[in-house]
């Protein structure tokens, strides 16, 4: 993340008005539990890929009000031109430190709707202030990692490079997209700053402007090869693609005289299938069988799949706008809901939000997600309450397609997905390198598709939790 985003001011104003209300009513230290979930798989897919936890960790480690934050909050006025937040409250914020517990599903894990990606437990005021930034971080990176995973799957193991910085939503959008794309399976990014910040490999060729800056294409290629003999990828479609390939081959022969080689050519327009086939033929006939063909030009998983169906001879893929902006599904519908408050006697009081849309009725309790396996295959995920517990062979009510009771009696292993990350504000989780996260994400995604393909995966509420939810609905509804 860009350093300025570490401030607690990265939140919506209504979080501050509620926080002030909790403080004014002496509710601010009441222990609360919130969960961050998403309601629907993106991209008409059957899963998502969890991403963004490391950015959350950095945000929470640095979560502290600085004097200039408080000075800004002091300038906010209500309709009567009075301070919106009184000095006494701002003084409280000046001494506030992060003291919550955070449990999270590790990055790179395949996840599904309604499962808590994060569980936040701690003082109500702190949990409330964290809603907007946590949603901002997790929603976007999970969305982009999922998109990248789909694109890489369509490429069938061929390298995918993320090229999306120039059309991403601002600097942090570009950086977050680069990070999430790498976790989702991309081999590199064009974003140099992302390479520095996140230890992601960076790749780059040249633009059409390089070619048009010279008298002709051949001179442009020769000049580029002379300064980049061991990083020579030539963009061949500035004027005429087939002639561009021929010019690149001529320059490639001169590179070999210098004990270098033409690494690849790049196609960025036109009939990519036809042009790649023609380019491959020309390259092979000239003895450049190992020279790759990199394609760009508004690619996504659907275009890549179609090009492969057409027999395109493309060996690597540069994917930009459609990946970095999640063009066909621009937002993950993640939400952050209060699910329990501890009363003065120390008992948990379960909370939920009602809605006329059943998908928007939140789940009460303090949740964990248990993933069950049989013969090393995914069987089902069950959301359960930590107080109510779960049996070794539980019954669960499916959340989608809805309310079907399923008993898990053919299982031989399970794992609880949410892991401790912070306790009382102290970071206790062992950091994982981005490369390990990426490897795990690729393996997990591959295993999931090997077992399930595009079929629906079952997620359910543990039976006792479901019953408690129904009772609470009856209790609180008008």
UniProtKB/TrEMBL annotation:
Keyword Ribonucleoprotein in annotation: no
GO molecular function, one term: nicotinamide phosphoribosyltransferase activity
UniProt pathway: Cofactor biosynthesis; NAD(+) biosynthesis; nicotinate D-ribonucleotide from nicotinate: step 1/1
Catalyzed reactions per annotation: 5-phospho-alpha-D-ribose 1-diphosphate + nicotinate + ATP + H2O = nicotinate beta-D-ribonucleotide + ADP + phosphate + diphosphate
This protein's GO CC annotations: cytosol
Function: Catalyzes the first step in the biosynthesis of NAD from nicotinic acid, the ATP-dependent synthesis of beta-nicotinate D-ribonucleotide from nicotinate and 5-phospho-D-ribose 1-phosphate.
Protein name: Nicotinate phosphoribosyltransferase
């Amino acid at each position: 993340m860009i350093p300025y985003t570490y401030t607690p001011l990265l939140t919506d104003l209504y979080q501050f008005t509620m926080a002030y209300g909790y403080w004014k009513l002496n509710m601010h230290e009441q222990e609360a539990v919130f969960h961050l979930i998403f309601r629907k798989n993106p991209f008409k897919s059957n899963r998502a890929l969890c991403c963004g936890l490391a950015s959350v960790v950095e945000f929470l480690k640095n979560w502290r009000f600085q004097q200039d934050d408080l000075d800004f909050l002091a300038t906010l006025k209500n309709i009567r031109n009075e301070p919106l937040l009184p000095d006494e409250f701002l003084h409280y914020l000046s001494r506030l430190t992060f003291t919550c517990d955070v449990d999270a599903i590790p990055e790179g894990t395949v996840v599904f709707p309604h499962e808590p990606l994060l569980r936040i437990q701690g003082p109500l005021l702190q949990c409330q202030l964290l809603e907007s930034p946590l949603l901002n971080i997790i929603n976007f990176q999970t969305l982009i990692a999922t998109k990248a995973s789909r694109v890489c799957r369509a490429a069938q193991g061929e390298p995918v490079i993320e090229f999306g910085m120039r059309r991403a939503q601002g600097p942090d959008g570009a950086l977050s997209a680069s990070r999430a794309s790498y976790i989702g399976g991309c081999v590199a990014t064009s974003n140099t700053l992302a390479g520095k910040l996140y230890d992601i490999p960076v790749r780059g060729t040249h633009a059409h402007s390089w070619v048009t800056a010279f008298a002709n294409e051949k001179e442009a290629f020769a000049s580029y090869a002379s300064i980049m003999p061991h990083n020579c990828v030539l963009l061949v479609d500035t004027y005429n693609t087939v002639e561009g390939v021929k010019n690149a081959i001529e320059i490639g022969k001169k590179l070999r005289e210098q004990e270098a080689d033409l690494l690849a050519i790049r196609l960025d327009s036109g009939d990519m299938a036809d042009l790649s086939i023609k380019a491959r033929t020309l390259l092979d006939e000239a003895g450049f069988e190992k020279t790759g063909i990199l394609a760009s030009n508004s690619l996504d998983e659907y275009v890549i799949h179609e090009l492969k169906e057409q027999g395109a001879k493309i060996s690597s893929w540069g994917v930009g706008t459609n990946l970095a902006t999640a063009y066909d599904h621009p937002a993950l519908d993640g939400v952050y809901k209060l699910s329990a408050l501890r009363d003065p006697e120390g008992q948990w009081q379960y909370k939920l939000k009602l809605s006329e849309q059943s998908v928007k009725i939140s789940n009460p309790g303090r949740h964990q997600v248990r993933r069950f396996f049989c013969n090393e295959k995914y069987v089902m995920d069950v959301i359960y309450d930590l107080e109510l517990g779960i049996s070794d062979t539980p019954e669960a009510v499916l959340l989608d397609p809805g309310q079907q009771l399923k008993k898990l009696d053919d299982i031989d292993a399970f794992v609880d997905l949410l892991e401790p990350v912070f306790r009382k504000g102290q970071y206790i989780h062992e950091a994982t390198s981005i490369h390990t996260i990426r490897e795990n994400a690729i393996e997990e995604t591959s295993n999931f598709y090997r077992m399930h393909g595009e079929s629906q995966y079952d997620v359910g509420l543990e039976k006792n939790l479901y019953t408690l939810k129904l009772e609470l609905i009856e209790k609180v509804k008008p």
